[in-house]
């Protein structure tokens, strides 16, 4: 006599879907980044990639896109899962069309969320992370693009569409970055030569988020503590 | 508590299981879900009362919160049959009262809650937070997604029963003529349902055999332990590493000879 079929044998589960965490890196590749800074930025992207690939959940759940702004705004990496992500080697030239780059990053997040919804994939609140050593050259306070960027960033944060971080690298105009940043999140200034630490922090933060469950408080390491890579510049 | 009863030729049974998720196992944390179920012989009919709660990971005393929520909701329903919304509100008041007594924040007891009151005529459900309730109509055999997770865009965000405006977020549903009802926390949500075009759909290859298993005759004596095995098994583990609770109420037209009439 054959053993009775167990309840586990009878049921079929859906193809397991991991919730996804969309992250956009908006990176300054203007000529002022040339030399050590662009080299460290590229090294940081390598560290970011290897750290996330080393974590089983983050590898499955974090999606990355990269927008650069230098000679022009480029989506150098459309959203992709970490296992398919190869960090680009960036070169620095041109001005800093930061306004257009930020809006591009926000559009990428909006489109990605629509894709998640269409595919039936759960997702975490996306992150947008802007790194610059200068100031925007494609907008000025109060002009049409400036207002669009302010509305998109501040409104997007207030409506919880994404988490928006601005990071300044010396000699970034921190006052401008402060005005662009959401009111609840001051821009951070990178301590000298701490690109690697900053990307380590970013990958650790995304790893924690990608392992969070309903109602979890995410305790991120303090980037501006004594051991941190950044300082708050008000 | 009584979890099976026969009355006037009908039988009501409750099966339930609550298992620790793999993530809490790794972290050495206890299972933070709670559930409670009771079958009452009513003057006119039989009645199954169910409360299921998921203590939030951010809450310092998540298990305490979920256990207070289910016990206080059920005690309210015992005295006020059918009043599921009021039972949820009562559970909320109890959480606030206990928090004050212990000198902690209500947030430390944060949890979700699903309260169900099921008779052969009607199933009433009050629900806050995530989790899912699926039923099957006795006459038509149709499966119904009775209550889904609350409106939250992001997977790790939820409005708990202890939130300031939580009473406004309690969703109430009534459905007639349910023969089987499944109530589950979010750890099981991904097995019972799938997302499509932004909405939630019943996943029939899981739900249909599950309901068939618990409605076959004779009734499975080992139903709750079979649920334990299912929720602890590799298949369901693949869906989520969160704690998992699944409670099933079955109303049968046929009297079960093994159960003495109430």
Textual characterization of the structure:
The complex is a heterodimer of chains A (234) and B (262). Chain A has 234 residues and is of the alpha/beta class. Chain A has one domain: Rossmann fold. Chain A is 38% helix and 18% strand. Chain A contains 7 helices and 7 strands. A 7-stranded mixed sheet of chain A has the order 3-2-1-4-5-6-7. In chain A, strand 2 and strand 3 form a beta hairpin. The N and C termini of chain A lie far apart (77 Å). Chain B is an alpha+beta fold. Chain B has one domain: Phosphatase 2c, domain 1. The C terminus of chain B is likely disordered.
In short:
The complex is a heterodimer of chains A (234) and B (262). Chain A is of the alpha/beta class and 234 residues long. Chain A has 7 helices and 7 strands.
* Overall 3D form of chain B: globular
SSE sequence of chain B, one letter per element = EEHEEHHEEEEEEHEEHHHE
Tell me the span between the first and last alpha carbons of chain B: 14 Å
Task: Give the strand order, joined by hyphens, for the main sheet of chain B.
Answer: 1-2-13-10-7-8
Helix amount of chain B: 25-40%
- Indicate the multimeric state: heterodimer
CATH level 1 class label of chain A: Alpha Beta
Specify the helix fraction band of chain A. Answer: 25-40%
Computed Rg of chain A: 19 Å
How are strands sequenced across the largest beta sheet of chain A?
Answer: 3-2-1-4-5-6-7
CATH homologous group name of chain B: PPM-type phosphatase domain
N-to-C terminal Cα separation of chain A, in Å? 77 Å
Number of domains of chain A: 1
Average pLDDT score of chain A: 88
């Amino acid at each position: 006599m054959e053993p009775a079929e167990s309840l586990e044998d009878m049921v079929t589960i859906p193809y397991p879907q991991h919730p996804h965490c969309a992250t956009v890196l908006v990176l300054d590749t203007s000529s002022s980044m040339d030399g050590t800074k662009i080299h460290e930025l590229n090294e940081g992207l390598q560290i970011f990639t290897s750290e996330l690939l080393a974590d089983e959940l983050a590898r499955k759940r974090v999606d990355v896109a990269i927008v650069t702004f230098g000679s022009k705004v480029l989506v150098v990496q459309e959203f992709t899962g970490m296992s398919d992500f190869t960090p680009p080697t960036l070169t620095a030239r041109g001005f800093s069309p930061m306004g257009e780059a930020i809006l591009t990053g926000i559009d990428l997040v909006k489109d990605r969320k629509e894709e998640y919804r269409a595919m039936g994939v759960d997702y975490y609140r996306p992150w947008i992370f802007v790194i610059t050593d200068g100031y925007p050259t494609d907008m000025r306070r109060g002009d049409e693009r400036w207002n669009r960027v302010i509305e998109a960033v501040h409104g997007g944060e207030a409506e919880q569409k994404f988490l928006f971080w601005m990071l300044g690298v010396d000699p970034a105009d921190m006052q401008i970055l402060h005005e662009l940043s959401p009111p609840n999140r001051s821009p951070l200034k990178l301590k000298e030569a701490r690109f690697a630490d900053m990307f380590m922090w970013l990958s650790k933060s995304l790893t924690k988020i990608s392992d969070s469950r309903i109602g979890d408080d995410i305790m991120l390491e303090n980037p501006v503590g004594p051991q941190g890579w950044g300082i708050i510049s008000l | 508590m009584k979890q099976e009863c026969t009355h006037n030729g009908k039988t009501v049974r409750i099966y339930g299981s609550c298992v620790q998720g793999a993530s809490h196992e790794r972290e050495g944390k206890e299972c933070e879900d709670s559930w409670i179920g009771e079958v009452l012989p009513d003057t006119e009919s039989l009645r199954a009362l169910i409360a299921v709660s998921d203590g939030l990971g951010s809450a310092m005393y998540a298990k305490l919160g979920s256990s207070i929520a289910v016990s206080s909701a059920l005690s309210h329903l015992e005295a006020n049959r059918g009043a599921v919304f009021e039972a949820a509100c009562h559970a909320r008041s109890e959480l606030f009262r206990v928090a004050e007594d212990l000198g902690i924040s209500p947030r430390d007891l944060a949890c979700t809650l699903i309260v169900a009151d099921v008779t052969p005529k009607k199933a009433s459900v009050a629900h806050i937070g995530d989790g899912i309730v699926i039923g099957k109509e006795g006459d038509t055999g149709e499966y119904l997604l009775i209550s889904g997770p609350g409106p939250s865009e992001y997977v790790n965000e939820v409005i708990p029963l202890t939130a300031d405006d939580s009473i406004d977020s309690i969703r109430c549903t009534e459905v007639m003529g349910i023969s089987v009802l499944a109530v589950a926390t979010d750890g099981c949500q991904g097995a019972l349902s799938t997302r499509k075009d932004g909405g939630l759909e019943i996943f029939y290859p899981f739900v249909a055999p599950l309901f068939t298993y618990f409605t076959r005759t004779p009734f499975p004596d080992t139903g709750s332990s079979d649920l334990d095995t299912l929720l602890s098994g590799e298949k369901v583990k693949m869906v989520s590493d969160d704690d998992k609770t699944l409670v099933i109420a079955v109303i049968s037209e046929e009297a079960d000879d093994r159960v003495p009439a109430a």
